[in-house]
Amino acid sequence: MPRIPATKTSEAGLFLKLAYRFARRRYGAVPEPLAVTAHHPGLMRAGAVHELLVERASKRLPSPVRELAVYRVATRIGCSWCVDFGTMLQKHEGLDIERLKQIDDYATSPAFSEQERLAIAYADAMSGEHVTVTDEQVAELEREFGREGVIELTYQIALENMRARTNSALGIVDQGFTSGDACRVPMP
After folding, report:
1. Mean pLDDT per 10-residue run, the chain (188 residues)?
2. Which of 96, 89, 92 is nearest to 111 (CA)?
3. What is the CATH number for 92?
4. Cα separation of 188 and 166, whole Å?
5. Is 80 domain-assigned?
6. Chain centre distance of CA 67
7. b/e map of 134-167 (b: 16 or more CB within 10 Å)?
8. Could you give the number of structural domains in the chain?
9. What is the pTM of this model?
10. Which range of residues forms the domain containing residue 165?
11. CA distances to 59, 97, 171 from 4, in Å
């Protein structure tokens, strides 16, 4: 149970009820981070708009590269909600979620491409207690993905750090998106 309870639909105003309805249709359930953040309507709205704009803008990187980097952050920070939700999103994008079990061995596992290894290593360098990104690492990423790709990857990793740290601080844990217990999200 989160440290701050989710805002119930019965407590919601019109805008929040619409947001919950949109989330239920899109994900099969209201994501708990949204329901907890709803205690601060201005930040909830800002976060929802931000997430939609980031999703729309993030088209430079190959989807598996972006999603694996984001997933790696979730595992590094230890956000079970982000791991659960991220796995569901990858499944719906048609990505191989079985290889997620090998994420800790990404550097040597044949399940990951060279591009994916570079992105996961970058996620590691950005997600520790201290940022350990090097000039050489960014130069290699720029050769592989271009400047727009490096900016997109950096932004996505930083955003997932914020999500994962926020959820962890508020005690928001996995919601059952991948198990189907909490949500039965139909495949697109």
Report:
1. 94 93 92 96 95 97 97 97 94 91 96 98 97 98 98 98 98 87 43
2. 96
3. 1.20.1290.10
4. 29
5. yes
6. 8
7. eeebbeebeebbeeebbebbbebbebbbebbbbb
8. 2
9. 0.92
10. 63-169
11. 34, 31, 8
